[in-house]
Q: What sequence folds into this?
């Protein structure tokens, strides 16, 4: 297992009163799988993702990476285990695509960030895989949303970690680019034996493209293969039923007339 | 041209600029010394008069070296602050670090005049540097505490401005209790000057700049990671508390130490990192680091050359010159907003 989560509660312990989001989360992510985290707005998808990265403390429960507790792993070692793609663009808009992707090699370079042949090879390989070769010397702030998303994913790929976490990688993209990004993520997971996890609102696409799904709900979280979850009727109660309902035959949501 | 070769060209040009500015600064001053004599005196010759030799070795050379250290150091601390706050308008002066140094210096110079018996002890060079550094640290610590609560960049700048006002007010209060000579000493300090440093003082300034520079250099990888934002930096293994500590210490020592010896010098720290980014079109600190040192030193030498009003007996406050040159640069950068990146 690349990642194993047991009885994890997420939320904000420091706020008054403490806020607990979603039910306890249990999941096991084998290498080479694409997993979507879905749920209504505010149920804690982003918070769960940040908790899994170690950027946010859990309320309770355990996160294990190959049997090691995640918070027992120091930050410098963790950087070679998991990489992230966030919704926020890079703070400096002056960086070129190649520079940003190169920053992904940080866990492997020396104190000054000097590249070895291997680092250079990996960056070139990642740029080629993400179809960014022609954009390599463009500044990030001149890219379109779809190109920027590809560049951000390329940076995470360059970090070369067995686990990759992405926060809403398909927002702001049109249908074509949404599908392209998700297919690319699936390809990456299979080709490089990574466990790739992303949050999304695109349930229809996730059902078709993901190996595993985690449905976050207030009372409980459900984890499994898409068809298992459909059969168990877990999508029927995902949203309040006054406006839409789930059609389990076609695997799509229908507007209630 | 591949990027590596073009960087070699750019850095050669910068080196030439620095060398030219340095020689120009040495060659021009209130005494008119022919350039050939300046060069021969510099390389151990006698020149055509003992007084020229004295002017070059005991006045112009220390002054030029101070300008190099102060310009490079202030530009570096500006670069650190801009990346650290991820704010293109940050700099030691804008964030009130230099005002903090002023308060430290005022407390020492003006406070010592209130306690006459301690004046001789307190007014040594080292204690002025210490007081000034302490003042800048205090302000930096408060700005940092505010920056943790306020993620808003503009709010931070306002905090810096407020510190400027508070310091100004405190200095006025101190001034109304102090004696004329002490007040005059402080006013001259606040005009800024890279002259009047002895070789010993210059040695101390060099040590401070080296210490600050090495600290900054040790954090170069973390600074690059910070270009993506704090969360990305953490996820790539950068320890933010450690980075924060060393960057603040380096900036405090550089800005505080330099301000102690030269007085507050405006705009170099703010403008030079932008000029270096425009020149090299990169945000990579491995390239910007040497670039801001060279460009900062060159700009400071040029400003000092102007401030000396060559061939006249007048000397202008260097702070006025850096402001006259620096403020339009900042306005120009703001008008071309797309270039105001970091």
A:
């Amino acid at each position: 297992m690349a990642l194993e989560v047991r009885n994890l509660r997420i939320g904000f312990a420091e706020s008054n009163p403490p806020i607990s989001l979603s039910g306890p989360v249990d999941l096991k992510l084998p290498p080479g799988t694409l997993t979507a985290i879905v749920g209504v707005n505010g149920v804690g998808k982003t918070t769960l993702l940040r908790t899994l990265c170690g950027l946010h403390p859990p309320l309770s429960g355990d996160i294990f990476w190959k049997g090691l507790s995640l918070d027992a792993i120091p930050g410098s070692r963790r950087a070679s285990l998991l990489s992230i793609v966030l919704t926020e663009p890079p703070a400096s808009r002056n960086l070129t695509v190649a520079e940003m992707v190169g920053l992904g090699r940080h866990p492997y370079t020396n104190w000054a960030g000097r590249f070895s042949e291997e680092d250079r090879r990996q960056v070139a390989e990642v740029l080629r895989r993400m179809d960014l070769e022609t954009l390599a010397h463009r500044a990030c702030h001149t890219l379109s949303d779809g190109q920027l998303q590809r560049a951000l994913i390329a940076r995470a790929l360059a970090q070369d970690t067995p686990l990759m976490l992405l926060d809403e990688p398909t927002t702001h993209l049109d249908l074509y680019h949404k599908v392209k990004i998700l297919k690319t993520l699936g390809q990456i997971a299979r080709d490089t034996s990574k466990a790739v996890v992303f949050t999304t609102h695109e349930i229809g696409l996730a059902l078709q493209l993901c190996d595993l799904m985690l449905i976050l709900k207030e009372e409980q979280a459900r984890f499994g293969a898409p068809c298992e979850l459909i059969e168990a009727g877990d999508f029927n109660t995902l949203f309040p039923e006054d406006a839409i309902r789930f059609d389990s035959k076609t695997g799509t949501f229908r507007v209630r007339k | 041209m591949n990027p590596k070769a073009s960087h070699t060209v750019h850095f050669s040009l910068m080196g030439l600029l620095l060398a030219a500015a340095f020689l120009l600064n040495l060659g021009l001053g209130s005494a008119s010394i022919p350039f050939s004599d300046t060069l021969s005196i510099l390389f151990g010759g006698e020149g055509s008069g003992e007084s020229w030799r004295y002017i070059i070795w005991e006045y112009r050379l220390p002054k030029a070296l101070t300008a190099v250290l102060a310009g490079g150091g202030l530009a570096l601390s500006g670069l650190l602050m801009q990346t650290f706050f991820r704010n293109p308008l940050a700099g030691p002066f804008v964030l009130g670090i230099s005002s903090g140094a002023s308060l430290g210096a005022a407390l020492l110079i003006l406070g010592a005049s209130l306690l006459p018996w301690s004046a001789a002890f307190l007014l040594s060079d080292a204690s002025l540097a210490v007081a000034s550094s302490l003042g800048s640290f205090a302000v930096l610590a408060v700005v940092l505490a505010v920056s943790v609560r306020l993620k808003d960049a503009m709010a931070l700048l306002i905090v810096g401005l407020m510190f400027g006002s508070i310091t100004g007010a405190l200095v006025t209060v101190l001034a109304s209790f102090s004696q004329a000579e002490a007040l005059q000493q402080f006013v001259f300090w606040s005009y800024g000057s890279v002259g009047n440093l002895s070789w010993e003082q210059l040695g101390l300034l060099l040590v401070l700049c080296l210490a600050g520079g090495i600290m900054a250099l040790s954090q170069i990888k973390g600074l690059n990671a910070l270009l993506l934002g704090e969360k990305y930096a953490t996820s790539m293994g950068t320890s933010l508390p450690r980075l924060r500590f060393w960057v603040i210490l380096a900036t405090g020592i550089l800005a505080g130490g330099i301000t102690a010896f030269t007085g507050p010098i405006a705009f170099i720290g703010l403008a030079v990192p932008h000029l270096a980014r425009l020149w090299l079109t990169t945000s990579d600190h491995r390239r910007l680091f040497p670039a801001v040192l060279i460009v900062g030193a060159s700009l400071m030498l040029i400003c000092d050359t102007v401030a000396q009003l060559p061939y006249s007996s007048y000397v202008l406050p260097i702070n006025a010159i850096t402001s006259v040159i620096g403020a339009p640069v900042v306005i120009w950068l703001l008008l071309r907003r797309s270039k105001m990146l970091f």
In short: Chain A touches chain B through 34 residues (CB under 8 Å). Chain A has eight helices and twelve strands.
